[in-house]
Amino acid sequence: MLKRTITLLGLTITVGVLLLTLGCGGSNSNPVAPVSSDHVLTGRGENVAPSAPILVRPNGMKIVYVRDGKIRFVVSATDENGDKLKYRIVLKKNGETIVFDQTQNPTGWNKSEYSSGEYAILTVLLPPGSYEWNAQAFDGKEWGPFHNPDATFTYAP
Predict the structure, then answer these.
(1) pLDDT greater than 60 at residue 92
(2) Is the dihedral of CA 23, 27, 30, 35 positive or negative?
(3) How many distinct structural domains can be found in the chain?
(4) What CATH number did the domain enclosing 125 receive?
(5) DSSP 3-state assignment of 70?
(6) Fewest CB within 10 A of the end CB: N or C in the chain?
(7) 32 located within any domain
(8) If you compute the radius of gyration of the chain from its CA atoms, what whole number of angstroms results?
(9) Rounded to an integer, what is the distance from CA 82 to the centroid of its chain?
C-alpha cells in the first residue's frame, strides 16, 4: 500500500492507495492490453467451423417408404459462433455421387438458412436403391466436418 500525505490550507490528510497491476503474460507496457501471444475469445472474432451434423433421418433404416414419392433428409448441426448454417448432403450409390449443396442450389431445402441446432430438411426425388449418405454444415465462412461414418438406407418408394 502506498501512502500519500496531502497538505491543503493547513489541513494534513494521509491517504492510503492500493496499486494493483494486472498482467496478461506478455512484455507489454500496458498491463491490461493483450499482447500478440494472447488468445482471442472464441465467438468474438475467431471463427470456429460448425460441428459435424447429426444425421436424423433417414438413419438406421433398412427400407425407407415415402407417400409423395420424395424422400426427406433431416440434419442438424451447431455453430459455436452462432452463425446461420447451410448444408451439403452427399449421396453415394453404386459408385456414383449425388450432391445437394444448399450454398449452390437451394432447391428442395425447406428454408434458405438455419439457426445453430435447428433441423434442416431436404426433400427430393430419388431413384430406388441402396445409398450411403453424409452431410456437412457451412457457416458462411468455412465448411465443418462430415458426420462420421456415412449412414446407409434403402429407398423403395
Answers:
(1) yes
(2) negative
(3) 1
(4) 2.60.40.10
(5) coil
(6) N
(7) no
(8) 28
(9) 7
